[in-house]
């Protein structure tokens, strides 16, 4: 699969499992492919899992921004093309990754067998939201990338998880501490300037699994319900006792939902 040429080249790190129908996992902000550890561990029997570090995050190069959601989707397309991944495949994105997954489908619909939209929304940023992105970018420039990510950490999980699972809190803290300043500022610009996907939801003609934490305070579950109502062939799974990181807070429930979805699409593995 080819995408438009980029203005710059960079080294993109990724994780890849095996030769099965492929599942692309696109991480959220300000995380990396390490956030998919429970999925990399448990879903390998059902799919070839490819989890890139987006530019500026994890082990990928820290490329100066600003970035765009289109650019980040094309990065993923370039990676899958480089790996000669058989199509069609499933694209899964969480939060910012969900924005990228929707853009990926708009640009490469013939390559997508299904979408998994986790802890995300279809709408664009409000004027207040855009101002908040700019404020966060200035904070990062003045005080470092962790000034933004550190403030987000308590809001990324259900309150019960944050209070009672210090090991998970530490794991997420370690992931977000690897985000580069270029990555944080570039991704904030990409999210700020993303288009409103709501008008195109009714045109999605592949199966869609929507997964959302019932206790998500960053993106309320009403956003997931609105997408479910707008997308013709969609299923909504609300996960109790999970916030903005349902794949980490309740990995067994999350993984079971994904496995069911993959088996519906590709049939059970022998």
Identify the notable features of this structure and list them briefly:
270 residues, alpha/beta, seven-stranded mixed beta sheet, 11 helices
What does this structure look like?
This protein is α/β, with parallel strands linked by helices. It is 43% helix and 14% strand. The chain has helices at 37-42, 69-82, 96-107, 127-143, 145-152, 159-164, 166-176, 181-192, 221-230, 246-249, 251-266; strands at 14-16, 22-26, 48-52, 89-94, 112-118, 208-213, 234-239. The protein has a seven-stranded mixed sheet, sandwiched between helices. Helix 1 (37-42) links the parallel strand 2 and strand 3. The chain is globular and about 50 Å long. 47% of the residues are buried.
Offer a concise description of the structure.
It contains eleven helices and seven strands. With 270 residues, it is of the alpha/beta class. It has a seven-stranded mixed β-sheet, with helices on both faces.
Low-confidence stretches: 1-6
The ordered H/E elements are EEHEHEHEHHHHHEHEHH
Radius of gyration from CA coordinates: 17 Å
* N-C termini distance: 29 Å
> So what's the oligomer here?
single chain
Beta-strand percentage range: 5-15%
The major pleated sheet works out as: 7 strands, mixed
Number of strands: 7
Summed up, the helix count is 11
């Amino acid at each position: 699969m080819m995408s438009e040429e980029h203005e710059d080249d960079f080294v993109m790190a990724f994780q890849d499992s095996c030769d099965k129908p492929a599942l692309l996992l696109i991480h959220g902000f300000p995380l990396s492919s390490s956030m998919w550890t429970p999925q990399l561990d448990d879903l390998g029997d059902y799919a070839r899992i490819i989890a890139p570090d987006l530019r500026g995050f994890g082990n990928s190069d820290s490329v100066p921004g600003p970035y765009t959601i289109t650019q980040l989707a094309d990065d993923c397309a370039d990676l899958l093309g480089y790996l000669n991944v058989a199509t069609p495949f499933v694209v899964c994105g969480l939060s910012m990754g969900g924005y990228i997954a929707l853009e990926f489908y708009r640009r490469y619909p013939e390559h997508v067998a299904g979408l998994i939209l986790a802890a995300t929304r279809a709408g664009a940023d409000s004027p207040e939201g855009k101002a908040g992105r700019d404020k966060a970018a200035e904070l990062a420039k003045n005080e470092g990338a962790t000034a933004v990510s550190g403030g987000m950490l308590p809001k990324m999980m259900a309150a019960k998880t944050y209070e009672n699972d210090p090991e998970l809190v530490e794991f997420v803290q370690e992931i977000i501490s690897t985000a580069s300043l270029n990555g944080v500022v570039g991704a904030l610009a990409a999210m700020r300037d993303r288009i409103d996907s709501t008008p195109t939801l009714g045109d999605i003609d592949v199966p869609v699994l929507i997964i959302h934490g019932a206790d998500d305070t960053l993106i309320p579950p009403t956003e997931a319900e609105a997408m479910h109502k707008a997308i013709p062939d969609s299923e909504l799974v609300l996960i109790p006792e999970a916030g903005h990181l349902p794949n980490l807070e309740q990995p067994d429930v999350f993984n079971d939902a994904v496995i069911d979805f993959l088996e519906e699409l590709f049939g059970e593995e022998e």
